[in-house]
Queue: 3 jobs
Job 1
Amino acid sequence: MTRRWSIAGQLFALQVLVVTLLVAGGTIAAVLLARSDARDAATEEVVSVAETVAHSPNVAAALRTRNPTALLQPYAESTRLATGTDFVVVMAPDRTRYTHPEPDRIGEKFVGTVEPALAGRTVTETYVGTLGESVRAVVPIRDTDNEIVGLVSVGITTKEINRKLLRQAPAVAIATAAALALAAAGAWLLSRRLRRQTHGLGPAEMTRMYEYYDAVLHSVREGLVVVDRDRRVALVNDEGRRLLGLPGDGVTDRPVGELDLPPAVAELLGSGRPADDEPVLAGDRVLVANQQVTRFDGRPLGTVLTLRDHTELRSLTGELDSVRGLTEALRSQAHEAANRLHTVLTLVELGRTDEAVRLATEELALAQELTDQVVGAVTEPALAALLLGKSAQASERGVDLIVDRESRLDPGPLPVRDLLTVVGNLVDNALEAVAGTDPPRRVTVYARSAVDEVVVRVTDTGPGLDPDQVADAFRRGWSTKRAGRGLGLALVGQVVERYGGSYTVTAAPEGGAVFTVRLPVRS
């Protein structure tokens, strides 16, 4: 299978290619510029030398003699050697050479352009002469009467110019190699960092991973919140936004403390501590949170929090617990009823019918009195059934559950679900408070609806509640029991907060605590 290039590898190859092309282009441009500069410098040099020779009085005087070569050849050669030029040719106006680096060429015609020089101007050109291609200048020589008596041409061959450029080649090559090495090293370091950040994945793999991960993150039915090492939100999926009530944008890359999160969730995310199936409250929802620290190559990257909505499940679990408790109470009552029935039958068999009738009548009266008391005070069927079930549970635990005769709660003021949450959790909390205490163990329930509010008051004869612990009692996770999860009163606090009501906890006159909840009635 052909190995696909990673993004880092492709970037490294692309950078090396681009840098190589840039350096090569820069080098070629520099060479061409240097060559042009060298030609310009050579042109200036030959013009300067030619003008110096042409303006020498000795040269003009030598041209007037019968044998100019004898005087001019040594002078031309010494000038050529001194200036580093390749030829200094003095000639007659008809192009006849008087001097030349190659003596055999003396007397021959000069090869090149001389017409502008004969007209009194300086000629510069690149021309192929007897010594090959050269950069040359032709300058007129004037006598004292300003008459043109001859011409002088000074030149430097192109080979010599190129030879001088080649002497600079090692420096250019070293600079080019250094530039390439530095660029390659920079590209390698960048690609190494990119490879570390992309984990060596290729473009297709990253695209596929992003598409799959994005689809999964936004389709799962669990809320997901990812927080980085700086406690800034890196990712929240759709379900997480819904469960936490977060807006659709403006959430990521913000510190956890700046978001409007439920207190329990904000504390969990801010601390970064691990959590395993920990219940948290978020508005009117009961969520189960799991949080773990994420690591890569041993380095912590942040935390991942998952949230599951257990509101309905928690409600069903509560109802199931109530039904289970009622079932146990009914089973116990059935056992007690069987014992009493055997007693009545035995009394009848012994001929003591009056005592048998009295015993049976008393039991029926007690049961009917409790039912009449509850149904008479609470006409809301679901709440009445809840209180009857709690009465059976209380009786099983040896606790007297009393419904205050002043209670009066009819259907309609508030949703039944919220009433069951408040009354059921307050009664459960009271039953737990009196469990294990010395007799009398009593729980009194008062529920009454007025024009503008519903008042629920539950009084117990338990150990009471420290005033400093009242605020904590309605916070998730607080419990007087070691194994308690502390959700009952927290759910009551949620209902109170949602309706804008209030709750108070005071000491009962006979010892214990009085929990009072007031819920405004919305018209």
Note: Confidence is low (pLDDT under 50) at residues 480-485.
Job 2
Amino acid sequence: MEIAWDLALYLTYLAAAAGAVALCLWLATNQRTQGPAVNASAGALGFAALWAFSVAGFGRQSVIQDVLLVASNLAWLWMLYRLFGYDKRDKSLGPIRPVVAALAFVEMMQFALIAARLQYDAEPGAQLLILQFAFTFRLLLCIGALVLVHNLYVGAAQMARLGLRWPAAALGLLFLYDLNFYTVAYLDNGTPELLEDLRAVALLVSVILLAIGVVRNKSELRFSPSRSFAFQSFSLLLIGAYLAVMVVVAQGLAYIGSDYGRILQAGFVLLASAIALTVLPSKRLRGWLRVTLSKNLFQHRYDYRSEWLRFTDTIGRAGPQATPLLERAVQAVADITDSPSGMLFTPREEGGMALAARWQWPDLDVPGEAISAKGAQFFEESQFILDLDDLRPGRQDGIPADACPAWLLADEASWALIPLLHYERLVGVVLLARPPMARQLDWEDFDLLRVVGRQLASYLAEQTSQDALGEAQRFDEFNRRIAFVMHDIKNLASQLSLLARNAEKHADNPAFRTDMILTLRNSTDKLQSLLDRLGRYGSMGGKEREEFDLGALLGKICGLYADRHTVTLISDDTCSVKADAEALEQALVHLVQNAIEVSDENSPVLLELRKESGSAVIEIVDSGEGMSPDFIRTKLFKPFHSSKPGGFGIGAYEARELVRAMGGRLDVESREGLGTRFVLRLPLSEASDMLRVMQDNSKEVA
């Protein structure tokens, strides 16, 4: 009987301590709790829990529990004072602070009495006197605290009483119990053991009253811990119960008293430990635990905030070590249902769906057409999530066989099919493997998987769009290069065509034949240069720059058109630049050719070269029809827009890009009916060197 009573007291102290700790942590971490005494209440509960643990662990006669009891009483007193701030009375009632300070001083005298007890431990008379002082001080504390509790509740406004009644009741119960306890102790000159044993019950009831006061309405009274807290707490509870059973059975075997008692005890502990090591790590047991707790403790199966954060983290994972997006998409769905593996099927060009990604499922053989076109159409139109366990017994219920082919039904590990739809268009289907703790999917599973499926579909559609855009950009770059090549070939073809027509008239002229050979050689060199440049059009002037004289280059260009049109260099300052001579010649030829094509036969194209503010300025002037301001602003430097019939519209664009690549600038002035002036500016060699040094210095500073 005595053993049962001691065990009941031990468990009562543990329950009181655990309840105080739980409420303390809830008050300290919950953002919904408000009020001036929240932190003080959490602190008081924490010290009370420490005191209860010390009694359970060290006994009622230990010095540790005496010290923690003083700390706990001081914490309860501080909580009582902070409760006066509920309706701001702690600022208007002056006598409160002196009373609280006096009571705190009286309680702190217990530290001196504890030290005196330790010093005079061998003298019974001194011990009795010290106990009398300790009981007296505690009586003063209880009386003063009860007076404060009374004033706290009676003096509060009517609305404030609704929030104060439960804390006031808890504090009143604690101090009233201690008043009776220390009164009996003072009269008997000793500690009443029964009342001391029941102090844990008083603390436990006070914690319950405080908990009711914290959550005052029905919705708050609903038990709603986080899922991770519930799973971990329940696991600890199971482990604790297991250990308690082990201890009880082992002690019972030891109390048998036979010669085999110790052998039975050791054998039981060994067997129980082996069972624990075998069963506790089981995934099936953990799955059963999660399902059981979700069904019985929570209104919803899923913690949607945690699921969404995990989903976002899985999909948003990046870096060279991250798995491909398609595999992460399967994992994101599988994590929701605790599935160990999965697959993703995506549409084929020929129709139907094919395997696109596996996640931790390498051994399942998948045919080339995993789902037929009719099955894909069913998922797209119905948006059904299929639980394959419902289909295996033959309960089709209007679901066509194409939606769930025979190879899937034959594999027992296959569990569910989730369609991924983007704007009502099917972009994929996820196949999930059976989780360790299989269950039947319900409406909550369907709702969450449907939302997640749509979100995943948007990610997959975005990746498909990016792939298509990248492919289109590569084709655009290829087409642009071809357009540039065709433009250059067109210019060469014009030169060769003109040469062929003149050859019919002047073939017998030795001077013409000499010039024709030179022209053919130049055309051949340009074609070869064009082939060499074809791989560099993306970089626009990426060739190593060299210093050369612009006057000589402009004279060369004038000589190219000597027999076809008058191109005159009217001013020739000595200008040296560092640039890609070949690319610059190509740009100037484009501009001069365009000027010739828009000018009359008798209207010369004028070139001018001069220095201006550290730059070499080249002007190309024609007297053609000119261009409108709107054309210059919106179309001149846009590819594939031309003012000439049959033109490619890329000469000006290519010329500007080549000049920009060399650090220069190309501007245009034009008036309709009067002509056009292109102005090309390049930094002189000295300015180019200075700019390069400044750029290198800025990089070093950075």
Note: The CA atoms of residues 632 and 668 lie 8 Å apart.
Job 3
Amino acid sequence: MDKMKTAEAIRSGQTVLGIEFGSTRIKAVLVDTENAPIASGGHDWENHYEDNIWTYSMEEVWAGLKDCYGQLKEDVKSRYDVSLTTVGSIGFSGMMHGYLPFDENGEQLAPFRTWRNTITGQASEQLSEVFRFHIPQRWSIAHLYQAVLNGEEHVKDVRFLTTLAGYIHWKLTGEKVIGIGEAAGMFPIDSDAKDFDAGMLEQFDELVADRGFSWKIRELLPKVLVAGEQAGTLTEEGARLLDPSGELSAGIPLCPPEGDAGTGMAATNSVAVRTGNVSAGTSVFAMAVLEKALSRPYEEIDMVTTPTGDPVAMVHCNNCTSDLNAWVNLFKECLEAFGTKVDMNTLFGTLYNKALEGDPDCGGLLAYNYFSGEHITGFEEGRPLFVRRPDSKFQLSNFMRVHLFTSLGALKTGMDILTKEEHVQLDKMLGHGGLFKTKGVGQRVMAASIDTPVFVMETAGEGGAWGMALLASYMKNKEGDETLAEYLAQKVFHGEEGESISPDAKDTAGFEEFMVRYKAGLPIERAAVESLR
């Protein structure tokens, strides 16, 4: 779309706005009628560790939102010489899970407890046993029940419980609603009913019945909506919260607020059954859209949903590229010691490609990338570790290969449960994140690890704010009973799937050999954790 048409689309309110609250950055993306990003704004922020809680203050939330939106307005003005006064629709997203409780007057009862907190172990274990459904520590219901177990005074006064995205949406529209994908990080979802699981809601009420609370759990939770439904309109008060200048008009429709998992699915066109996406950077997680529910719960697998409510199995790992990056920086330091200056992109590309020359099984080398604990393999703490036998093939190619392999070792442990034990069928996985920046390398390793074709799109780097804008666009522009999967495929990605790499049989066999060594060597990692204090 040319500049004049874009300016007219902005002026006439045909654009769509997506805003996502990430862990370290709040980002806004404005898209045109073809769903292409045309302007953006951002605000950097960090959580705080206060009174043993990882948190953000609500003052920071609103200051960050206003700054982010203000930067977006400036970007629009500088690019198109148009003042942003309205848009066609808006969507808000945020880091999922956590705990934001409010009383009957809408007053916050406890500091925001983010997904990062691991203080709900007792609640997580007990709820998982009662529900016969894995409840991760970061889920909202685990935080609420832990507060019950702790005897926290505020619990009796809770009248509304939501997430960060749900909170923002509520304050801007007055609607206590939430998208189903985000809801799946609060309480288990019944994908057939497109709502919280009724049986488990009753089980929770029975569990706390002796506490004498005047509330039932369903009364505290927001209403669940699916992608495509309208979730309210921007109020006058909400418009001022977003744009204190008074230029933004009220009455703009909003789509259901979603979590970063759902926006990631939208941004990678991986909402259809038998597809999935993997985000690989500092941490790594993979999501697979299921044809049917798993046969039983697994501690290693989190069950969430797509923005339309289809069941999704998620494997989340704390560690991915941090140790790999540390080794690349060491090579950079070595080169600089010899007076050689090297571009980091060139260095990463050279070393990553060197890994493709290594032996399929990494020549007998072994490494663990555990900067922090890794729940899938049972570690509360981590120690980055490299070890080899005297007869291992200690070459640069194998050294780089083993660090690429181990960056996906914990993830493969979880994915093997899905593919080998549950026989989940995946036609393709969409890859995004730093691991895939060097063309063809991380993609090839990922394909080998899960024995599935891996696609990488240029647009995958646009991020969650763009994914949220796509969900808002779907609500505004869908035709008839057009599904989200159809809309994304035909109206956003136009049938393009990105560049694909299929698994190489030798790489896949080599990764399996490496994983035998990886599992057998876990006691070495345990000894490192216990010995290096």
Note: The chain has a mean pLDDT of 94.
